Fold this sequence. Notes:
By secondary structure, the protein is α/β, with parallel strands linked by helices. It is built from 8 helices and 12 strands. The protein folds into 2 domains: about 120 residues, 3-Layer(aba) Sandwich (Rossmann fold); about 90 residues, Orthogonal Bundle (Arc Repressor Mutant, subunit A).
Amino acid sequence: MRLLVIEDDPDLNRQLAGALTDAGYVVDRAFDGEEGHYLGETEPYDAVILDIGLPKMDGLSVLESWRRAGRAMPVLILTARDRWSDKVQGFDAGADDYVPKPFHLEEVLARVRALLRRSAGHARSEFNCGPVRLDTRTGRVTVEGNPVKLTSHEYRLLSYLMHHAGRVVSRTELVEHLYDQDFDRDSNTIEVFVGRIRKKVGVDIIQTVRGLGYLLAPPGDAR
Ligand code: CA
């Protein structure tokens, strides 16, 4: 899952990006409204954390512009504690959720998890596919209850497929959602990581759909 953090306070930006990276997401960062607006318009993010008070272009204008352009990714806004009008205007501009400042990073993480699973159409923070279970709260993967050790990149890949189980996900889509903007993107490496996940999980849940991409489905649920 690839996220965008737009926050002009450098310390806060760093803390947010650090906590989200530790939680297994790929994070791009912007420090003003113009830069953030551009990234959100051109890159496919799974969710955005958007400060309202930003230099060059304020957060509400950024959000309104994205929504007018049809950008539908979930957006969590950061609002000033006592500005209830920020929240109202934020929701009206197309925000999906908000966190007032100052906040606990844990709350932001929990809200991001909720936004991601809701936008994928799931009500729970655990994802199951046959005997394989992925818990987005703990970042743990088990097969029939036995823990499987995945690298952070393998986890991101499996998590993305879990969030989009039942539909074919192309390699290009995976590359766009698993690497940050500065990464040297090579879709061939995806095949390698899929191979490693298959081996570690030991259950056949990732099907290769020739010429199209990958499909996550319970074993025996072949197409
Ligand atoms: Ca600010």
